[in-house]
Amino acid sequence: MADGRGTIRRRAGLRLWLAGGWLALLALAAILAPWIAPADPLAQDLLGGRLPPIWVRGADPQYLLGTDSLGRDVLSRILWGARIALIVAALAGTATALIGATLGLLAGFLRGWVDLLISRLIDIWMAFPPVLFSILLIAVTGPGLGPIILAIVVIDWTRFARVVRAEAMAQGAMDYVASARVAGRGRIGTMLREILPNVVPTIVVLLTLEMGISVIVEAILSFVNLSISTDQPTWGGMIAEGRTSIHQAWWVLVFPLIALFLTVLSFSQLGEGLKDRFDPVLR
């Protein structure tokens, strides 16, 4: 049993290192994009369109990952697109966690009419198809970074609320909560000082997963031209453009797709690693 727990902990540590390493590298590259990007991501060179990556015959050493149909540097556009993806992931994920976790904690611990009201709100909200709901919100508010973040928060807060509600209910039935109440601590004090610290690991795991989902949602909206301005480089926009020229310039599609896949996978594995690390049985 001890060997099994040790193996799980080692695997969790490896996932944390690999996923955290990629995300840290991506965040650093996104922050430094104005200085390390080889070219202006919006600069066009129609005479240098669809140049292949540097290791393919006919490449230009100036463009390490080649150019798109308008002669724009693919590597530079990936780096600048990472800024949009990570900004959406951080802001949307954090806002979703704060709103959903707060409502879930109140519903799970206070019970009664509070739980009934929040639970019914969750049920009604989850009846709407999330993708169609997000597209409708963007169509109403217009494209932009703010509307994208708002759409993600409005759609995904229910995920946090449901999970945190169930966890708060489980924690509320523990003996240490009853002891705190017997000692004279009020309901709000018990919730904040006793329940919340034990629910935080669950919230952290959900937050990392939500960041990955936010990256996917932003890419989907960019793919259908409902994200920020089409002039700004986004991974979804690059994938949409590369899809139309896959046979002539595969690199325009493949490289942003790889960046998107590794980022979403890293957020997912980071969440799984944190889940194993925080597992009370393994601790």
List keywords for this structure.
single chain; 283 residues; MetI-like fold; 10 helices; 0% strand
Largest sheet: none
Strand tally: 0
Number of helices: 10
CATH architectural name: Orthogonal Bundle
Alpha carbon gap, first and last residue: 13 Å
Mean of pLDDT:
84
Structural class: mainly alpha
CATH homologous superfamily heading: MetI-like
* Number of separate domains: 1
Low-pLDDT segments, ≥5 res: none
Please report the first level of CATH classification, the CATH class: Mainly Alpha
Gross geometry: elongated
Cα Rg: 23 Å
CATH topology: MetI-like fold
Query: What pattern of helices and strands is seen along the backbone?
Result: HHHHHHHHHH
Strand proportion: under 5%
Helix content: over 70%
What features would you describe in this structure?
It is built from 10 helices and no strands. 74% of the residues lie in helices and 0% in strands. It has helices at residues 2-31, 33-36, 74-110, 112-125, 130-141, 145-172, 175-182, 187-223, 235-244, 250-278. It has one domain (2-278): MetI-like fold (Orthogonal Bundle), CATH 1.10.3720. The protein is mainly α and 283 residues long. The mean pLDDT is 84. The chain starts with a helix and ends in a 5-residue tail after the last helix. It is elongated and about 75 Å long.
Summarize the structure.
With 283 residues, the protein is an all-alpha fold.
Show the helix and strand layout:
Layout: H1 2-31, H2 33-36, H3 74-110, H4 112-125, H5 130-141, H6 145-172, H7 175-182, H8 187-223, H9 235-244, H10 250-278
